[in-house]
Design goal:
By secondary structure, the chain is of the alpha/beta class. Helix content is about 40%, strand content about 20%. It is built from eight helices and twelve strands. α4 (about 85-95) runs parallel beside α8. The radius of gyration is 18 Å and the shape is globular.
Length: about 230
């Protein structure tokens, strides 16, 4: 199956450079310097990944990310010149799966993009359906599907990987360091705040949207655990 990537970058030389690197990996690339056109691409082309620069001429990149999250859970890899931790955390809270600060290595970007795409496909070759809390939560790895009280929940690849990691051993406390390495496969600066942001988004989808009791529990000073027990 062909992988489609949308590159949203207003600097034409960098946009073309990224296109050449990604196309070498056999992926189809749609590129634009416009936030509005990026939203159109996401609606019509159903891409597997969006690489999004925040410094766009027509729309704020943050607004583009927010709009994308209203109709799709496509993974978003943010490119930004803003190096402050608060800016990076803001991107993650908007639903981005990863971020890179400029200047950056195009090869590293490709590797990170491939890691995001692999996370999105994890479990698609298995027929493994697990139930927790008397059927309150169901994780179907074969279908890459999460169901809360009979309602399907759409998760980003990072949120999916975090939930699957916590569900490996319900009740076990996983540190932030463990989770970020299981989800991304590498360590990077700010990983603690990164996990916190993704857990916040995951909780919103699992608990607030469906009025469910606490599913992912915070253990102060340690990390997180899945509160629900696995069903027999």
């Amino acid at each position: 199956m062909t992988t489609t990537v949308v590159i949203v970058e207003d600097e034409s030389k960098l946009r073309d450079l990224l296109r050449s690197y990604i196309e070498r990996e056999g992926m189809v690339v749609l590129s634009t310097g416009s936030g509005a056109e990026a939203i159109t691409f996401a609606r019509t082309a159903h891409p597997d990944l969006v690489i999004l620069d925040l410094g766009l001429p027509d729309l704020l990149g943050e607004d583009v990310a927010s709009e994308l999250r209203t109709f799709t859970d496509v993974p978003i890899l943010v490119l930004t010149a803003k190096a402050a931790e608060s800016d990076r955390i803001r991107c993650l809270e908007l639903g981005a799966d990863d971020y890179m600060t400029k200047p950056f290595s195009p090869r590293e970007l490709v590797l990170r993009a491939q890691a995001i795409l692999r996370r999105g496909r994890t479990g698609t070759q298995h027929d493994d359906r697990s139930s927790f809390g008397g059927g309150e939560l169901v994780i179907d790895e074969g279908r890459h599907e999460v169901v809360i009280r009979g309602q399907r929940v759409e998760l980003t690849p990072t949120e999916w990987s975090l939930l699957c990691a916590l569900a490996t051993t319900p009740g076990r406390v996983y540190s932030r360091f463990e989770l970020i390495n299981r989800v991304r496969g590498y360590e990077f600066d700010g990983y603690e705040r990164t996990v916190d942001s993704h857990i916040k988004n995951l909780r919103h989808k699992l608990e607030q949207n469906h009025r469910s009791p606490l599913i992912v529990e915070t253990v102060l000073g340690t990390g997180y655990r899945l509160r629900l027990a696995r069903d027999d």
